[in-house]
Amino acid sequence: QKSVEVLVAALTVEQTELNSATNKVNEELSALTAAKKIVDDAIIYVAEGMVKYATKSLKSKSAYFKRQKQTFRGRKDRVAEEWQAVLLAKEKLKSTFSSFAKAPALTPEEELE
Q: What is the maximum alpha-carbon separation in the chain?
């Protein structure tokens, strides 16, 4: 009977140590779970930040290209206006030379006057 009591006492001690070890493992598991959540949240936060940055960058580049397109259109319009002015000047020159060609020749006396 004494050996049974010793055996029960030893098993009780073993059970207590096992319970203590189980509690420590559960605490570690809880700490790891909390750490994993922090890491997961950080990954999500960084990913969201990257998406926001990329979106902001794309919007900025889009605005830049729109401004460039407007600037190009403005330059294109100015070049077209200047080209029209050149064509008009060319026509005026043609008209002037045509008038000179049609005008009667001056006599030497008229040229001296």
A: 161
Which structure tokens are listed for 60? 């900025």
Distances (CA, A) of 96 to 71, 85, 108: 37, 16, 22
| 34, pLDDT greater than 90 | yes
Supply the pTM of this predicted model.
Answer: 0.44
Which structure tokens are listed for 79? 């070049």
Angle at 9 between CA 4 and CA 13, to 5 degrees: 145
Report DSSP letters for 59-87, one per residue: HHHHHHHHHHHHHHHHHHHHHHHHHHHHH
DSSP state of 104: P
Residue with token string 């259109």: 73
